[in-house]
Amino acid sequence: MHTLRALVWQRFRETLQSSKHIVVIAGAGLSAASGIPTFRGGGGMWRSLDAMSLATPEAFEENPSLVWQFYHYRRTKAAEARPNAAHEVIAKMSAPAYLKKVAPSAASFHLVTQNVDTLSRVIFPDSVFEMHGRIFDVRCTGACGHVYEDRAEPLCAALGAADAEFASYEDAGTKRIDIADKELPRCPKCGALARPGVVWFGERPYHLPEINGIVFKADMCLVVGTSSTVLPASTFAYRVQRHGGKVAVFNLDPGERDERADFVFRGPCEKVLPDIFPELAA
Ligand code: APR
Question: Is the CB of 24 under 6 A from ligand 1?
């Protein structure tokens, strides 16, 4: 192995060994190897539309049919996906017996994920905070505000029929299909139009008081597969650093804040994490 790389790995492992409160901040790159498209960079487009422009309350207000088709696509991807080797390593860290092997001084370990694919929850017990919600949740837009999990695929007949118009999900780009509001998912309680139960731009993330407490206490923050461009998650790592904690970034691509990190591990996290922690790999 390259000597410099081996030294950095060793220094990181030593720092982790003395860490007491560890938090992982995860983003779309964590699930990329599970086949879930990221928002930015390669794969950040859907039907030649910028994925981010669809994840807003305004986009839903303007064109619920289009936004529902985008989320139908993402739900299908999430339903097919299985946790990858990076999820496995992080899941093992959450188990005290394994955590002790790599961080014997640790008193707490938490995962805060921006991902809505539920892949971390599949293998995690309770220590995951899904701050942007869950892709399989559906929320009433009416006064009743009912939120419920619905894993049906398709969620309604019209979304299934729209799929049939395309040879594959990936080439879904060319054709506009307008589904009437009354054929889109409706609230089972009051019949109003329902929306994806995820957090969109401009909306308040879930679990913020708990997450702020975790970030406030953490002395080690692993930032895995996120472009760190979306507030408030983009601030967590540097809040940890501001009170004396360390930051380790795991990302495929360079990021604007990398130079402030204590450790940067460039590469696919599903490869880098098992390489650094062979004792946590499957
Ligand atoms: N391993 C590590 N990093 C990866 C991998 C991989 N296999 N594949 C991609 N990446 C990196 C990309 O280089 C990019 O920096 O993961 C990052 C993904 O960034 P985004 O697509 O911006 O996703 P994320 O940071 O999770 O976005 C935050 O923005 O659109 C909203 O609500 C949405 O939760 C999302 C939030």
Answer: no
- The reply to whether ligand 1 has any atom less than 6 angstroms from the CB of 31 is no
Residue among 36, 206, 230 to mutate when testing ligand 1 (max atoms within 8 A of CB): 230
Q: Indicate whether residue 32 lines ligand 1 (CB < 6 A).
A: yes
The CA distance from 218 to 109, in Å, is 9
Q: What is the DSSP track for 54-94?
A: HSSHHHHHH-HHHHHHHHHHHHHHHHH----HHHHHHHHHT
Beta strands in 189-253 (DSSP E): 194-198, 220-224, 246-251
The mean of the pLDDT values for the chain is: 91
What is the pLDDT, as a whole number, of residue 169? 56
Would you give the end-to-end CA distance of the chain in angstroms? 22
Does residue 132 carry a catalytic annotation?
Answer: yes
Q: Residues 248, 261: contact at Cβ < 8 Å?
A: yes
Does this model's pTM top 0.90?
Answer: yes
Name the residue with tokens 């999900």: 169
Of all atoms in ligand 1, which is nearest to the CA of residue 28? 26
Q: Which one is catalytic: 132, 146, 207, 243?
A: 132
pLDDT tens digit sequence for 10-59: 999 999 999 999 999 999 999 999 999 888 766 656 666 777 788 999 99
